[in-house]
Design goal:
- Helix content is about 75%, strand content about 0%.
- By secondary structure, the chain is mainly alpha-helical.
- The longest helix is centred in the C-terminal third of the chain and has 30 residues.
Amino acid sequence: LQDGLVIFTSFIVWGSVSLLPYLFAFIIGLPPGEAHEKYGFDIVFVASCVMTGSGLFILGALKSLFTAERWYLSGLFVFLNGFLAGLAGYVVGYALGQWFGADAGHV
């Protein structure tokens, strides 16, 4: 039971890192799409990507405390693993959107 609670808590904490920029934008009242029109790209999405990548690297570096890996290699491995998983999901979503004629929005 204790292991399950640790995994659940870790999932909630580390899983929310990528949502923090969207929460912040909502709190300050930034309407969706306004940042894209002002800057030419979605600054909230970019901030979410940067925070997610940083969080993955930190999580990997922390993992090295319990393994024999070097902290920077462990951080890099977890970052790359998460990056490739996210990229695969994005590509599949984009391809399915093109196939079914859905608009992907501003990204």
